[in-house]
């Protein structure tokens, strides 16, 4: 009988540690996602370069490109992400992969013209050693009534 109780105690401890780690990872990734919008607005290439995996892909309304191209676009102001108003967020973590969905209103300067667009943005992150790196960022145009199911 004592072995049975001991097994249950170890199971509960393991489950609570796993939950605590998952919650910590969720908080970390959500903060990175939030910080990313500010870094993009500030054209902070150094911070973004640390966040973006070298092989990351970025899908926009006008095309798809890789990390170096995205950083150059931000640096030159070809697209200036002036402000991302985040209305709704959801996250799911599976192993070392996190997916974040943000419903945003993006105010941006695109080739000299200001645009205000509703998007759901899908971000994919991977834990590499102790750091989370963004592998993909995809903008999907949506109505302002769009909601992310959690």
From TrEMBL:
It comes from the Bacteria. It holds the Pfam family DUF4440. Residues 30-134 form the DUF4440 domain. Keywords: Signal. InterPro entries: DUF4440, NTF2-like_dom_sf. Coiled coil: none annotated. Residues 1-20 form the signal peptide. This is Uncharacterized protein DUF4440. It comes from Arcicella aurantiaca.
